[in-house]
Amino acid sequence: MGLIGIWETYEDDGHNKIVVTFYKDSVITELYGGVHHTNSNWTVDSSKIYFTNIKLLDTILSDVTYKYTLNNTKDTLSLNFPQKSKRVTVLFNKATTNIFFDKD
Asked: pTM of the full predicted structure?
């Protein structure tokens, strides 16, 4: 599975850094300096990632589906999802460490 591992946003367009860590049976999403943290289950097919049982503190959130693509070298992940009345695409680079936890 090409998605297993740590992915972080790299564009600097005024948005907060997002880190998504895919494990075999779960995914952790972190943003706002690691303060906002969700844990969920995930499955994938050839074009979509399905997040289920999304936990934020003691709350279970609605399931989310993202359209995704990987580039040819499988080091850039593009997630596409609806937000309000438009679709948004967020680009992630494959990372070796989680910037929120591996600070010197």
From this structure: 0.84
- Helical (H) or strand (E) element with 35: none
Residues 73-82 have pLDDT tens digits of 999 999 998 7
Q: What domains are there in the chain, each with its CATH number?
A: 5-95 (2.40.128.280)
DSSP β-bridge partners for residue 31: 18, 36
- Give the β-pairing of 48-56 and 64-70: antiparallel
What is the rounded CA–CA span in Å between residue 78 and residue 90?
6
CA–CA separation, 104 and 96 (whole Å): 15
For tokens 């740590």, what's the residue? 6
